[in-house]
Amino acid sequence: QVQLVESGGGLVQAGGSLRLSCAVSGSIFSINTMGWYRQAPGKQRELVAAIASGGSTNYADSVKGRFTIYRDNAKNTVYLQMNSLKPEDTAVYYCNANTGWGAYEHDYWGQGTQVTVSS
Questions:
Q1: In degrees, to the nearest 5, what angle opens at C-alpha 20 toward C-alphas 72 and 2?
Q2: Are 91 and 40 in contact (CB under 8 A)?
Q3: Half-sphere exposure of residue 41, counting CA atoms within 13 Å on the CB side?
Q4: Could you give the percent of the chain with pLDDT greater than 70?
Q5: What residues does 82 pair with on adjacent strands?
Q6: Which DSSP symbol is given to 106?
Q7: Is 45 exposed, middle or buried (0-12, 13-18, 19+ CB in 10 A)?
Q8: CB–CB of 112/36 below 8 Å?
């Protein structure tokens, strides 16, 4: 079992910055990849950024150059630094932990945190 608790969302003006945090607890050793997803009203949930256990990262094209995902292993926390925010970044942001392999693969999700960017 893995538990994820997000924080750091809020209301910000376009061009501003926010940092989201995801505190991880439980079977951390089983995690393959940590990611941030977002879901805007009426839209499907989409991957924003991910970081693998080896440290490699990938980003959605829409956030490349503006968002950075990183982790602090000592604090068991994954962060999403969001700069140059745009109104279209408005969404509920979810932390994700992918664990296991094959038939034992499982995704864990946080409760979500709202990010609202005003124009």
A1: 60
A2: yes
A3: 5
A4: 100
A5: 18, 67
A6: E
A7: middle
A8: no
